[in-house]
């Protein structure tokens, strides 16, 4: 029989062993199709484009809201219905953020049964798929962020990450594997998944329509505003986590991937806008860590904890969060450092003997030796803040002591500027020898390089700065 052979095929696909312990996603609602020859893997043509469209999703995401929008022209919006619609919007939104996302996808806290049922019902009111399906995709999104296996990779475009991935059919085999054993063992999740259509029609349409009808005698307004249009707004808001939160804002914790923090995204998504933090610390029940940041989902979970309905709220240690923030700051500093001219690295400079240094200086080169490093000050003599005379007098000499307080204790800026004039190091030059010895003994901070390979030169640690100047070599 055909069905038993396709059963066998599905079982064969399922039986493939994966070393990471994950398994293929098995549709619980008994849809049988060959995962190996998926329409999404075939090019879109004029003849097959309609097969690429996921018509069920398109109906719920685009056509139904459109009908609601058009019909709102004839249906007046009454104030009590509008207030209820906004409240129901937050209810459904929390179902997604506190339920689907932070409870089921990330297990960032544990919920008592009544809270689970509440969140599963609220989540159904948002019409974004079952908690099981949603969490599985979201786990793949975190595990394979920005790659081909990310179900809503922003690398495929903002529109794709927002809505394209639902409107167009996707090959379920493309999406990265995730472990959802815990969800399959959660009776609330499994029940909601098996009875998804009933749950959605009840929670997303019947409840708001009946509430507005019975309370304010506004059946039609309840259906259009608290039902259809409210669904549209909550869907678009949560889709923004996949699109906007990977596109707009700062990256205070890591910039290797696309997630970003922005207050606008947070306002739109009930606090899910601190997405750079969230991708770094995904099992933290908070998305915003500062008290003044907008994260009503966090406040909701905290309130549930006070009521005894939520427990084991997970938090990353402050120390780890601050380490991440500091490292990212350091990375930005390093990038900035690499754009500046710090002079030729000492080890790349030619070694010049003292006699050559003196004779080159006599033959017209404006060379000055300071701390064993030779500098060509020719282009700077006229600009020297201390006057031409003092700097000209140092040409052809070891000016270490003069530069470091003998005549004038030069500023940090002067040491930095001097480093850009380096042309060589003296053979046997005193300070450079000390520097080389320290480097070989691996104990000199001045030789530390940053992540871009630039030598870190901190204020006061320039090689030309000598705290107790040695006597000038060419005295007299
Ligand atoms: Zn994300
Ligand atoms: Zn997440």
TrEMBL record:
Places the protein is found: Membrane
Role according to the record: Stearoyl-CoA desaturase that utilizes O(2) and electrons from reduced cytochrome b5 to introduce the first double bond into saturated fatty acyl-CoA substrates.
Gene Ontology cellular-component terms listed: endoplasmic reticulum membrane
Pfam (any one): FA_desaturase
Keyword rRNA-binding: no
PROSITE patterns given in the database record: CYTOCHROME_B5_1, CYTOCHROME_B5_2
CC cofactor: Fe(2+)
Listed name of the protein: Acyl-CoA desaturase
GO molecular function: heme binding; iron ion binding; stearoyl-CoA 9-desaturase activity
């Amino acid at each position: 029989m055909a069905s038993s052979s396709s059963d066998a095929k599905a079982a064969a696909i399922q039986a493939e062993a994966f070393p990471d312990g994950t398994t293929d996603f098995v549709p619980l609602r008994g849809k049988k199709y060959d995962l190996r020859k998926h329409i999404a893997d075939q090019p879109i043509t004029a003849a097959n484009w309609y097969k690429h469209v996921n018509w069920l999703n398109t109906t719920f995401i685009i056509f139904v809201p459109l009908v609601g929008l058009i019909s709102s022209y004839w249906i007046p919006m009454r104030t009590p219905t509008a207030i209820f619609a906004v409240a129901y919007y937050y209810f459904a939104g929390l179902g997604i953020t506190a339920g689907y996302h932070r409870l089921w996808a990330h297990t960032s806290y544990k919920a008592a049964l009544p809270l689970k049922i509440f969140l599963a019902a609220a989540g159904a009111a948002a019409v974004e798929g079952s908690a099981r399906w949603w969490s599985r995709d979201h786990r793949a999104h975190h595990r394979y962020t920005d790659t081909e296996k990310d179900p809503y990779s922003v690398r495929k475009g903002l529109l794709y990450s927002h809505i394209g991935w639902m409107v167009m059919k996707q090959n379920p085999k493309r999406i990265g594997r995730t472990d959802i054993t815990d969800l399959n063992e959660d009776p609330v999740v499994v029940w909601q998944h098996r009875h998804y259509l009933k749950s959605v029609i009840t929670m997303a349409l019947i409840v708001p329509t009946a509430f507005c009808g019975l309370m304010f005698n506004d059946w039609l307004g309840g259906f259009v505003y608290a039902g259809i249009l409210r669904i549209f707004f909550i869907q678009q808001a949560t889709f923004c986590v996949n699109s906007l939160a990977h596109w707009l804002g700062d990256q205070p914790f890591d910039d290797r991937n696309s997630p970003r923090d922005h207050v606008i995204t947070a306002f739109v998504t009930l606090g899910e806008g601190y997405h750079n933090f969230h991708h770094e610390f995904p099992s933290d029940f908070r998305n915003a860590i500062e008290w003044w940041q907008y994260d009503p989902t966090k406040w909701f979970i905290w309130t549930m904890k006070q009521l005894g309905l939520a427990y084991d709220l997970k938090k990353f240690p402050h120390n780890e969060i601050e380490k991440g923030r500091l490292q990212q700051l350091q990375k930005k500093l390093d990038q900035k450092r690499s754009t500046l001219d710090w002079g030729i690295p000492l080890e790349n400079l030619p070694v010049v003997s003292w006699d050559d240094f003196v004779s080159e200086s006599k033959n017209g080169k404006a060379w000055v030796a300071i701390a064993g490093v030779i500098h060509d000050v020719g282009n700077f003599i006229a600009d020297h803040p201390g006057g031409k005379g003092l700097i000209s007098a140092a040409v052809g000499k070891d000016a270490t002591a003069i530069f470091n307080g003998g005549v004038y204790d030069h500023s940090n800026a002067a040491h930095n500027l001097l480093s850009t004039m380096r042309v060589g190091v003296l053979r046997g030059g005193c300070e450079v020898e000390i520097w080389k010895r320290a480097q070989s003994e691996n104990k000199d901070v001045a030789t530390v390089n940053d992540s871009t390979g630039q030598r870190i030169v901190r204020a006061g640690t320039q090689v030309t700065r000598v705290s107790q100047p040695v006597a000038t070599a060419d005295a007299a």
